[in-house]
Amino acid sequence: MTIEDARAVIVKGLQKALVAQEEGRLLDIGDGWDDAASLDHDDSRLSVALNLWEGWADSAEHDWLYYEDMEAQDWLRQARIVIEALEQDQPITDLEILKRWTRQPPEPSVFSRLVLWLRAI
User: Fold this and answer.
1) What is the per-residue pLDDT across 84-101, written as a single tens digit (0 to 9) for each?
2) How far apart are CA 76 and CA 54, in angstroms?
3) Which one-letter DSSP state was computed for residue 20?
4) CA-angle at 81, arms to 36 and 65, nearest 5°
5) Contact 9, 38 (CB under 8 A)
6) What is the DSSP letter of 28?
7) How far apart are CA 43 and CA 9, in angstroms?
8) Is 49 helix (H, G, I), strand (E, B) or coil?
């Protein structure tokens, strides 16, 4: 599958999630995420889109809890921004979206840093 195909699958899934929320079918927001997440891709935009979609489905299933500063309408707004960027094959430039949905590698533990320091000396 090409990157364009993967992008199209994710866009279609996000669009269906928009409709699901607008129609009050909150448990349907995550439909298709598993299939989309299994697609092979090397595109940070698609990772951001999948992270957003996953969080959105989780939040909807839990009455919009557990995601600080995110209410039901915020998910719709962010999804539309991501969909537009993907449809136009443009980078996602919204800093709020990038900050929230770009996964960072975990911080090394104190023990890990100590081991690295000891190895260095």
Assistant:
1) 999 999 999 999 999 999
2) 13
3) H
4) 75
5) no
6) G
7) 14
8) helix
CA distances from 21 to 18, 41, 57, 71, 112 (A): 5, 27, 10, 12, 43
DSSP string computed for 51-65? HHHHHHHHHHHTTT-
Identity at 72, one-letter amino acid code: A
- DSSP class of residue 103 equals P
> Tokens for 25?
């079918």
Q: Full-prediction pTM beyond 0.90?
A: no
Q: Two tokens at 34?
A: 């598993």
Give pLDDT tens digits for 26-75: 999 999 999 999 998 888 999 999 999 999 999 999 999 999 999 999 99
Could you tell me if 11 and 83 are in contact, meaning their C-beta atoms sit under 8 angstroms apart?
A: yes
**Amino acid at site 4:** E
Contact 46, 38 (CB under 8 A): no
For 109, the token pair is 């533990």
As given in the structure block, the two tokens for residue 82 are: 């991501």
* Token pair for 84: 């537009």
Using alpha carbons only, what angle is made at residue 95 by residues 92 and 97, rounded to the nearest 5 degrees? 65
